[in-house]
Amino acid sequence: MGIRIKGLNLLFGLLAVAGLAGSVYQVNALVQRHDANQQIQAGALVTHDGYGFEQKFMAAYKLGESGDYKHAVQSYSQLLETGLSQPQQALVQYNIGNNLLQSGLKRRLNDDGSLKDEAKYDLSQAQIAYEQALRLDPAFRQAKFNLSLMLLVQPNGIEGLKKEQEGMELSNIPVGLP
């Protein structure tokens, strides 16, 4: 009977040690998540190595926030290549669309008041990014809103980078004139 009690005490002691180790591990993970959330809420870059997605996402977000839309889109695109879940991919596509939309809206106009080709390209790519975000997550309300807003802002008739062909000139007289 004494051996059996010693065996049970040993078993319960081991279970208590395992439970304590698990609790310490969970508290440590909770503290790390709390620190990462505090850094994100403060708008700072995430410094913990266990949050690779968040680190890269915040770095790209900061680039876009500073107005460097081209590099922000590149950073988000690199993030897409890391094998994300569908909601994460939708979020990244949404942010790509946001940066392209802002880039397209900040481009200057041509002398005749039409959009520059770069702005047309950015707006068409933003539309593609928003549509991709909605394919990945059809309930993504912010992407729906931004897509509809972009379509309202976008001038009618934008079809990517289609350039009109200019008439060839024979000597000094343009083709088509009498």
Please tell me about this protein's structure.
This is MxaK protein. InterPro entries: TPR-like_helical_dom_sf. It comes from Methylobacillus methanolivorans. This protein is mostly helical and about 180 residues long. The protein folds into two domains: about 1-45; about 45-160, Serine Threonine Protein Phosphatase 5, Tetratricopeptide repeat (Alpha Horseshoe), CATH 1.25.40.10. Helix content is about 65%, strand content about 0%. It is built from six helices and two strands. It has a two-stranded antiparallel sheet. A hairpin with a 2-residue loop joins strand 1 and strand 2. Helix 3 (about 70-80) packs antiparallel against helix 4 (about 85-105), helix 4 (about 85-105) runs antiparallel to helix 5 (about 115-135) and helix 5 (about 115-135) packs antiparallel against helix 6 (about 140-155). The longest helix has about 40 residues, at about 1-40. The radius of gyration is 28 Å and the shape is elongated. The termini are far apart. The model is unreliable at about 160-170 (pLDDT under 50).
Give the topology, please.
Blueprint: H1 2-41, H2 52-65, H3 69-80, H4 86-106, H5 117-136, H6 141-153, E1 169-170, E2 173-174
Antiparallel strand pairs: 1-2
Helix pairs in contact: 2-3, 3-4, 4-5, 5-6
In brief:
67% of the residues lie in helices and 2% in strands.
Proportion of residues in extended strands: under 5%
User: What is the count of helical runs?
Assistant: 6
Q: Characterize the biggest β-sheet.
A: 2 strands, antiparallel
| Strand order in the largest sheet | 1-2
Regions with little confidence, pLDDT below 50 for 5+ residues: 158-171
Summarize the helix and strand pattern as letters: HHHHHHEE
What is the highest CATH level, the class of the largest domain? Mainly Alpha
